[in-house]
Design brief:
Elements lengths: L4 H21 L1 H4 L7 H23 L2 H8 L2 H26 L3 H23 L5 H21 L4 H18 L5 H26 L9 H8 L1 H16 L4 H7 L2 H13 L6 H29 L4
Amino acid sequence: MSESARPDETRGIAYAAIAYVLWGAVPLYWRLFDGVSPFEVIVHRIVWCALFVMAIAVWRGRFSQVAAIFRTPRLLATLALTSVLITCNWSVYIYSVATRQLVEASLGYYITPLISIGLGVALFGEHLSRVRLLAVCLAGVAVAVKAASLGHLPLIAAVLALSFGFYGYFRKQAPVDALDGLLVETGIFLPAAAGLLVDWYVIGNASFPSGSIGRDSLLMASGPVTAIPLALFAAGARRIRLSTLGFLQYLAPSLTLLLAVFGFGERFTRLDMVSFGCVWGALVLVALDGRLSRFSARAPTI
């Protein structure tokens, strides 16, 4: 790598690492809304995120690019689908925070890269090596063990992994700027979400405005809390290799798991240890498989 490229990669690693640290620590923020229903929190998140990203679009002069998205039916349809997926992901995650089920949520985000591998095989016909097949099987064992400990399918982990895995897949099919895409995704639900806030206010069931400047400010801050890590992630992803980005992505669920167990006092049982051990083993196998493949490609033939 050239000397001029190194500072850019260093900045990229810093941007991506900060994004993942923020995502890992964000349960601390969502826990501030214990008196607000998870559904109302997600409605506020949509409204304030859309308004915040809209203000950023005005500042960046991006409205012509956003308008072009609305004039492209296929692109708009893709972003409508990703809007549903990311809203589903946000909703389940906030629900997991509100109901003290962050350990299961972190399991879901650990499984997400393995879901991406499965999507690559199923949708792109990618070859699955024996090592990666073993990794996917270990992920299946992890889900089965977690299901045994709960007495039912770990729906939070499954929904988070599948919704974010499919979100990543379809988002890659939409060649748009990260914040432009987020504006369209949140803008699609903005009229309905804003209508709900008005309706709750009229009938007297709203948590906003609450009469507390602190609570109202926190709800409004859900916009930048949502958008800023995404912008940092996009800036980092453009500057670093995918392998580096893949390593950094485990910062978020690791921090969330530590926060859940040592910060919020959630139980981490022996079966949880087995389940997470299977997932961590699977991720190690995927990492080793990538390194072995690159080593084999560089090895001289005789």
